[in-house]
Every structure is written in structure tokens, then in C-alpha cells.
Write a structure and sequence with these properties.
Oligomer: single chain
Order of helices and strands: EEEEEEEEEE
Strand content: over 45%
Shape: globular
Radius of gyration: 13 Å
Length: 123
């Protein structure tokens, strides 16, 4: 069965950086497009960034463009989110999941969400 395990979160000061990791198992990692989502308290889950199956195409929601970078390592079955110039509004639990190719954002493994990793941006 599919397992998604996020890590790398923590408390970081505004303007700081953090690198998140998501290790996937139980599937052929390289066959999927991957995305990061986040959910802040009292808000709906938000689609933050995505990387194509081949890795050559990335997407970022407007609020993180120029600050976040998504990447993946097929050999390690891991997708990363490098976050720089963090702001208090980036505070959320971050999750990864596979998504369909193209513009669709629906998570493919809706019954396999990991525990997420908490990122708190605060002084």
C-alpha cells in the first residue's frame, strides 16, 4: 500500500529557510507527477507546488513563487520543497501527494495522506 512520510518541518524565524522531504513507498515513484499541499489552521488545504513526472515542469502558487523550489529524486523516491524567505503566512502543515498529469490538482492517493510536517514561521 502507498505510504507518504513528510519531514523537515519546525520553527523558523521570518526570512529563514527550511527544506521539506516526502518519502513515498508502495508505488512506482517516477511514474507520477508530485505536489506539495499545505493546510493552515481554519483553512482549506492549498495546492502549493508541483513537479512533472519527468521533472522538467514545475508549478507554484502565486504566493510562493520565487521563494519555494520543488524537486525530486527518483532514486530515493523522495520529493522536496525548499522554502526560502519564509513568512508568517507560510505557517501550516505541509503534505505531499501524487496528482494527475496536466492541470488537475486532485490528489491521487486521498486515503494515504501522511501525517504532514508542521512549519511554523514566527519570531
Amino acid at each position: 500500500h502507498v505510504q507518504l512520510v513528510e519531514s523537515g518541518g519546525g520553527l523558523v524565524a521570518p526570512g529563514g529557510s527550511r527544506r521539506l522531504s516526502c518519502a513515498a513507498s508502495g508505488l512506482t515513484f517516477s511514474s507520477y507527477k508530485w505536489a506539495w499541499f499545505r493546510q493552515a489552521p481554519g483553512k482549506e488545504r492549498e495546492y502549493v507546488a508541483a513537479i512533472s513526472r519527468a521533472g522538467g515542469v514545475t508549478y507554484y502558487t502565486d504566493s510562493v513563487k520565487g521563494r519555494f523550489t520543488i524537486s525530486k529524486d527518483n532514486a530515493k523516491n523522495t520529493v522536496y520543497l525548499e522554502m526560502n524567505s519564509l513568512k508568517p503566512e507560510d505557517t501550516a502543515v505541509y503534505y505531499c501527494n501524487a496528482v494527475p498529469p496536466g492541470a488537475a490538482r486532485t490528489p491521487l492517493f486521498n486515503d494515504a495522506w501522511g501525517q504532514g510536517t508542521q512549519v511554523t514561521v514566527s519570531s
